[in-house]
Structure formats: C-alpha cells, structure tokens
Amino acid sequence: MQINHYIEKVLPVYRAATEQELTICPGEWKYGSFFTTILAECRLFQPWATERFLDNGGRIVTGALNSLQELHGKYDVVVNCTGLGAKRLCNDHKLVPIRGQVIKVRATWVKTAFYADFDTYVIPGFEGVTLGGCRNFDSYNTEVSRYDSAAIRERCESLLPSLKGAKVLRESVGLRPHRDPVRVEIELLPTTNGSLRVVHNYGHGGYGVTTAPGTAKYAVKLVKEALQTNSKL
User: Fold this and answer.
1) Cβ pair 94, 180 in contact under 8 A
2) Which domains does the chain have, with CATH numbers?
3) Which of 91, 48, 89 has the alpha carbon at shortest distance from 66?
4) Please, which residues bridge with residue 198 across strands?
5) Phi and psi for 121 in degrees, rounded to 5?
6) Which residues does the UniProt record annotate as the domain FAD dependent oxidoreductase (predicted)?
7) Chain segment 68-94, per-residue pLDDT in tens
8) Which CB contacts under 8 angstroms, 24+ apart, belong to 43-50?
9) Which of 217, 135, 141 minimizes the C-alpha distance to 184?
10) pLDDT tens across 141-165, in order?
C-alpha cells in the first residue's frame, strides 16, 4: 500500500489496514487503510458556526445582489463565499455543481466508517448512519432520485450486509460548488467610481467543511493584505 503522506501528517492514527480488518467487508480486498479523524455533521455544525459568528458581533443581512460591485463604498473588503452563486456574480464558468445524494438510516450497531470504490461510503454520525453516494457532474437536479437511492443501498449493503433492512430516516440531495482549482485569491474589481477589494473563497466541491479551516485562514491572510495601505493591489 502506498502511504498518503499528506494525510499521515494531520491524522492521529493512519496506517495500512491489517489482514483481519480487510475481511470485515465481503470481497477479496487486498489494500486498505485505517485512520481516526473527527466528524462534522453539517446539519449541526452550520447552525453552531452561525451562532458563534453572531455571538462575536457578526450581523446577517439578507438581500438580493446582482453584482459584487454593488457593495462598493459599503465595506473595506468583501469576502466572496457565495458558492454556486459565484457562477453568476463572477461570471465564473469554471464553477459547476456536482450533485450528491445520501440516505440516512438507523443502524446503531455501525460504529466505524467505511469508504470503498465508486464513491461508496458508510458513515455513522449523530443522527443515524449516512449511506452514499453519487457525483453527478454539472447537474442542477435537487430532487431525490429513486434510481440513485437503489444504487446507493445496493453498494452499501454489499459493502456491509448488516445494513440490509435498516430503517430509512431521510434522504437528502445537495449541489456541491466545484471548481478546479478552488478559488482563494484577491481581486480588485473596477467600479464606476473606484474599485472594490474582494477576497474570493469558493469552489470547494464536496470538501467544504474539510478544507474550510485551511482556506479560511488563508482568506483571512489575504484580507489583512488587502487592508494594508501598501497593498500591491
């Protein structure tokens, strides 16, 4: 097995799976890895993050925006985290949705996460076990597909047969804002009476929560650079 040195540096435990561990799931698995990590349930994490933002003096203003230039004169720097909205706001044709669908089931006996071929994963969480998944490139369909549901269950139950008959709690569909590469950079947007400093931070695809701490720190660094009077903008 080839070691992933990037993961090895950030995870508490990361090693090759033992021969015994490779027999947990049916099939003649020859390679695998075992690691420990943290789990963030987005349905819980996002409200918590919003509360932290408000508690620290942040304000949420709701409104329609046709262009980032409309914000000129209102803020010193704008951080653009509009996800798929950046496709229109920034005329960014590199940004595309990748549709994902998951099934949440009740399976309290599953204590370990599994990830296998064809984007197949079983992840125990705070509100049941998540079964996935799919990646439909450039799809805007937000409806649950019974065909995807059937395929997900078939793959996950083949990976972990004990899931057969597990009660479905809910099914969810989401659109991941994918861009290659992820856009985290400064841009000086011309306006009718000057310019607007913008720090873009979008296009993370299905890895938004995973990569958020790193890209957020880099975005903050760029904001500080943009605020400097001797900025090279």
Assistant:
1) yes
2) 63-95+178-229 (3.40.50.720), 96-177 (3.30.9.10)
3) 89
4) 78, 187
5) -145, 150
6) 19-221
7) 999 999 999 999 999 999 999 999 999
8) 43/127, 44/126, 44/127, 45/209
9) 217
10) 999 999 999 999 999 999 999 999 9
Residue linked to tokens 């500080």: 224
Alpha-helix residue ranges (DSSP H) falling in 113-178: 146-159
Distance CA 1, CA 14 (A): 12
First vs last C-alpha separation in the chain: 46
Residue 30 Cα distances to 19, 33, 112, 118, 154, angstroms: 8, 11, 19, 16, 22
Could you give the C-alpha distances from 25 to 110, 158, 161, in angstroms and in order? 13, 8, 8
Average pLDDT over residues 218-222: 97
Rounded mean pLDDT, 1-17: 87
Beta strands in the chain (DSSP E): 13-16, 33-36, 78-80, 96-106, 114-116, 120-125, 128-132, 136-137, 167-191, 194-204
The first and second tokens of residue 3, run together, are 């070691």
What's the pLDDT band for 233 if we cut at 50, 70, 90? very low
Q: How far apart are CA 119 and CA 132, in angstroms?
A: 7
* Antiparallel, parallel or unpaired: β 120-125 and 114-116: antiparallel
CA distance linking residue 68 with residue 89, whole number of Å? 7
For the residues of 169-209, what is the DSSP string, one character each? EEEEEEEEEEEEEEEEEEEEEEETTEEEEEEEEEEEGGGHH
Residue 101 has φ and ψ, to the nearest 5°, of -140, 135
